Amino acid sequence: xxxxxxVVPSALPxxxxxxxxxxxxxxxxxxxxxxxxxxxxxxxxRSRYSAFAVGDADYLLATWHPRTRPEDLELxxxxxxxxxxxxxxxxxxMLDTVGIVEFTAYARQGGHRSRxxxxxxxxxxxxxxxxxxxxx
Length: 136
Description:
Layout: H1 28-32, H2 41-54, H3 57-62, E1 80-91, E2 98-109, E3 112-125, E4 128-134
Antiparallel strand pairs: 1-2, 2-3, 3-4
């Protein structure tokens, strides 16, 4: 009797961490792979949250505004990002060049729950959205 192939769990989630209701591969995954770019500041915020959730520091650095981007970024692999709530957006649409996204992100680490509330500023440069800074 042949031995079945072992099942290798994927490191990538099936559902997108941004909670759009879509699969990761077709949602934030396509932005992380460079197949498309965020059309709005909110879409960039969601894709950046998903990058934290899947541990994609390269994407986070690439979408950070050059004026405020750190030289490197070390993610804590013990943090498990659980949920993202978008509280409000100001501007940040397809025709805008600036935008604000207020959000709360929920995480777990070592059995403890935490949340991060932030008001983030975004700027579009040459048609590409970038995370600029937290204002709150």
